[in-house]
Design a protein that fits this description.
It comes from Massilia pinisoli. This protein is mainly alpha-helical. The protein has helices at residues 2-12, 20-32, 36-47, 50-76, 103-116, 122-141, 147-166, 168-192. It is elongated, with a radius of gyration of 19 Å.
Length: 198
């Protein structure tokens, strides 16, 4: 399996001198696109009603659980990144920590899958899931992940989205009350002016 993973990596990794456009697209996808996920959740919270806000909380819980699972996997089994074994071309700096599973993709797909499994956000979930493929390609292309790191991210993201949706009864209502209290403290004046939903 390791040999197949490395072979696929070499096939997808950037050449020594990539085109400027492809490199720019990869860097944007690998390093900056991830910020769209918390931005979407923030907009959903600020503009949505109670049902939408609870959906955003479930998606947030899914992403956080996915990252926690990844940390536990990294403690149990540390897998080197390509540049740590001198493989391929690395075009962005990255700390030399465990590569499996990809944190970026786990967070992204955990939110995407959470949206997919909730009726009111299926279209957004599909769009995020497809964009996740671009993130996966970019992080392999730039030399900081192996392809199997992305398969691991799919598995963890699926598990975390399923668990947080299935067990929402345990945390959603108190989490919603807590988040609403913080929201009202931060945006109290804007709520009074009618600029932000209560």
């Amino acid at each position: 399996m390791e040999s197949l993973d490395q072979t696929l990596f070499i096939w997808l990794n950037a050449p020594e001198h990539p085109s400027a456009f492809t490199l720019a697209l990869a860097i944007f996808s690998a390093e900056h696109l991830i910020w769209a996920a918390p931005l979407l959740i923030g907009i959903g919270w600020l503009r949505g009603g109670e049902a939408t806000r609870k959906t955003m909380l479930i998606a947030t819980a899914s992403g956080l659980l996915g990252l926690l699972i990844n940390q536990l996997i990294g403690l149990v089994w540390s897998h080197p990144r390509p540049f740590m074994i001198g493989l391929g071309h690395t075009l962005i700096p990255h700390v030399a920590d465990s590569s499996f599973p990809s944190d970026h993709l786990t967070l992204w797909w955990a939110i995407a899958f959470s949206f997919l499994w909730q009726r009111n956000l299926r279209i957004a979930g599909k769009a995020l899931a497809v964009l996740g493929i671009l993130i996966a390609w970019a992080r392999i292309y730039l030399g900081v992940h192996f392809p199997f790191d992305m398969l691991g991210a799919i598995a963890v993201a699926t598990l975390s989205a399923w668990l947080t949706l299935r067990e929402a009864r345990w945390y959603l209502e108190p989490g919603y009350q807590f988040a609403t209290g913080i929201h009202q403290r931060i945006f109290g004046r804007l709520i009074a002016l009618g600029w932000v939903r209560e």
